[in-house]
Amino acid sequence: MGGGAKMSVSHESRQQLIAEARHAAAAAYAPYSDYQVGAALLFEDGAIVTGANVENASYGLALCAETNAVSKAMNQGRRGGLIAVAVVGPSDKGDGSPITPCGRCRQVLNELAQLGGTDPEILCVGNDEVRSVTLSALLPYAFGPAHLD
């Protein structure tokens, strides 16, 4: 990814983004894993786009929350401007530690970020901790649109 522009996100914006991700998780369709995930994307203009995971009886066809949110944003015409992402899972599963986007979602987020030359802050939310890391730290040396020019 090369470390695109990183914008500062206020504490209030982080809290709102986490709340929106939690709200999105409530709409998850996760009858097989019973692991509801929500994601919220924050854009430079202040817009927030959310998504939740959607599972399928053919397990490989499941869609992650982050991928759904990016797809929704792209369908709204958003091409770049991504400055922060919050990802939350269920508070009653696992050990309560922060969850991070899977590899596929890191790549999907990277595509949107590279279109705007940003390196968004990723808020990985757990029960008692929020881990903040840049997308470039989660996906170093990422492949993206610039490689196709």
Summarize the SSE layout with pairings.
Elements (H helix, E strand, L loop, with lengths): L10 H15 L12 E6 L4 E5 L12 H11 L6 E7 L14 H14 L4 E5 L4 E5 H4 L11
Parallel strand pairs: 3-4
Antiparallel strand pairs: 1-2, 1-3, 4-5
Helix pairs in contact: 2-3
Textual characterization of the structure:
By secondary structure, this protein is an alpha+beta fold. It has a single domain (11-140), classed as Cytidine Deaminase, domain 2 (3-Layer(aba) Sandwich), CATH 3.40.140. Helices cover 30% and strands 19% of the residues. Helix 2 packs parallel to helix 3 (103-116). The longest helix is centred in the first third of the chain and has 15 residues, at 11-25. The radius of gyration is 14 Å and the shape is globular. The two termini are 15 Å apart. The mean pLDDT is 95.
